[in-house]
Amino acid sequence: MPRVNQAGFAVLPLTSRHDDSTIRKAEEWLHAHFATEVRLEALAAQLGMSPRNFERRFKTATGMKARSYLQALRIAAARRMLEEGARSVQQVSSAVGYDDVAYFRTLFKRHTALTPGAYRRRFGRDGAGLPAAAR
């Protein structure tokens, strides 16, 4: 079932179900706070774990490192915002937790193989999937 973050965008779960309830709490916290500055060391401490143990358990449970999971959450939310089409790339970058737009563009392209602008042109509501000449 999709989760809705503070900005009102649904973010789908990134991993399959697992039995580690503490890591599930970490995932829920990340889904709710991905757009803020996230300090994984502080999250580990909040859950009563050392950073190393947190990383090990997170990867075992989810199949991803915590930082990669956070980036994937942010990119998924950015994709949705770009599909909606109402915001500039800079606004989307900031809304998902990246103040450096160039870094955001690099990560976005690494995850989707498209720049944010190209992604919006291809999947946005205004002419989704249509060739540029048809829009």
Features:
single chain, mainly alpha, 2 strands, 3% strand, disordered C terminus
Can you walk through the features of this model?
With 135 residues, the protein is mainly α. Helices cover 58% and strands 3% of the residues. It has seven helices and two strands, in the order E-E-H-H-H-H-H-H-H. The protein has helices spanning 21-33, 40-46, 51-62, 66-84, 89-95, 101-112, 116-123, and strands at 3-4, 10-11. Strands 1-2 form a two-stranded antiparallel ribbon. Strand 1 and strand 2 form a beta hairpin. Helix 2 (40-46) packs across helix 3 (51-62) and helix 4 (66-84) packs across helix 7 (116-123). The longest helix has 19 residues, at 66-84.
Note the run of SSEs as H and E: EEHHHHHHH
Total helices: the number is 7
Instruction: State which percent range the strand residues make up.
Output: under 5%
Cα Rg: 16 Å
Q: Strand order across the biggest sheet?
A: 1-2
Uncertain ranges: 1-10, 128-135
N- and C-termini, Cα separation: 34 Å
Largest sheet, strands/sense/barrel = 2 strands, antiparallel
User: How confident overall, as mean pLDDT?
Assistant: 85
**Which class do the helix and strand fractions yield?**
mainly alpha
Helix fraction by DSSP (H/I, runs of at least 4): 55-70%
Q: What would you call the shape? A: elongated
State the total count of DSSP E strands.
Answer: 2
